Amino acid sequence: MGGVTSTVAARFAFFPPNPPSYGAEPLPPAPDAGTGDPKVKEGSAVVELTGVPRRANVEARRLRTKRGTDVVAMYVRQTGAKLTLLYSHGNAADLGQMYELFVELSAHLNVNLIGYDYSGYGQSSGKPSEQNTYADIEAVYRCLIETYAAAEENVILYGQSVGSGPTLDLASRLPRLRAVVVHSPILSGLRVMYPVKHTYWFDIYKNIDKIPLVRCPVLVIHGTADEVVDCSHGRALWELAKVKYEPLWVKGGNHCNLELYPEYIKHLKKFVGAIEKLPPPNDESPESSGPSDSSTQTGPEGTEESRKSTDHREKTRPSIDYRKSTDRRDKPRGSTDRRDKGRKSVDNPDRPRASVDQPDRPRKSVDRFGGMMKAVRLRNIDCFKVPTASGS
């Protein structure tokens, strides 16, 4: 059955750029590699990215996943940053194409940022699959904790399009995560093609079942003119989030160009600023800094528990074994037709559906962001499309 799931995923989800837009060359070992130098860690080796500009605050690594593939990740260090953004990019993109966006996001949001290529993308080894992407993001999160000394409560997970899958999967198993952003997200892989009302075992990226398990604030960003993943996906996920942040519905935005709108970076800056002011989340298990399997979870005060479901449960994965974790299991939900009322809004509890379609006057630095992103042609780097029938 797992093979069927992988086949479904391969047919309509994964389109790695071919050829890759960058290279990754190994660096010689550091002279003090045996003295605890952070450049040399077990399952992690520093590499040099070629085909992209060199920057002193950017470091790239090749990380070994628990499924045996080696994924390439780039870390952008921002002096004085308190938070770290772990970014899972969209389809038909790789690190070479995302490089400038990552550097600019880090600077404009004043966060450290780590982005990575899924197995089979860019210079990462292996083949793309749903399960591989889960292992990929876990390896990157582990790198953040062990190599860059990040703390779970200071990490924001960001998932774009297909990247919303590994993002929400990991977020559902991190009880003390600071926040989550999903950008043009999908309810599930099958729901991109068909308006099904129930979750089937062969579906992939069952975000609809996982977002109710996320305890931290969730920001949803979606274009109202998205013809690839309808805006209804983003709206439904926002409805299901336990802790809502004011969403961004980009009027006229499509699936591949939201970064070009001034309200995009403006709203993200506002979100990061609000998250920084919130106290770090408390959890009953302070020693748990790695992904854990989830069960019924009580969210922050004023939110509801995850609902029971009659859908087929997907097989839960074991938690990463480098940290202690709570032994919990995911409880997926039922049909999308049911909507919970009265959920907590982080930004404005009395007005949970506030829209930023008409933003205030942006600052000049925000204006420049859209221009810079247009220069790197972001509209071409995320096409979650269903391929036409072929013999392949």
TrEMBL record:
Residues 21-40, 276-371 are annotated as: Disordered. SUPFAM superfamilies: alpha/beta-Hydrolases. PANTHER family: ALPHA/BETA HYDROLASE DOMAIN-CONTAINING PROTEIN, ALPHA_BETA-HYDROLASES SUPERFAMILY PROTEIN. This is Serine aminopeptidase S33 domain-containing protein. InterPro entries: AB_hydrolase_fold (IPR029058), Hydrolase_4 (IPR022742). Residues 287-300 have a biased composition (Low complexity). Residues 21-31 have a biased composition (Pro residues). Residues 82-188 form the Serine aminopeptidase S33 domain. Pfam families: Hydrolase_4. The lineage of its organism: Eukaryota, Viridiplantae, Streptophyta, Embryophyta, Tracheophyta. It comes from Lolium multiflorum. Residues 304-367 have a biased composition (Basic and acidic residues).
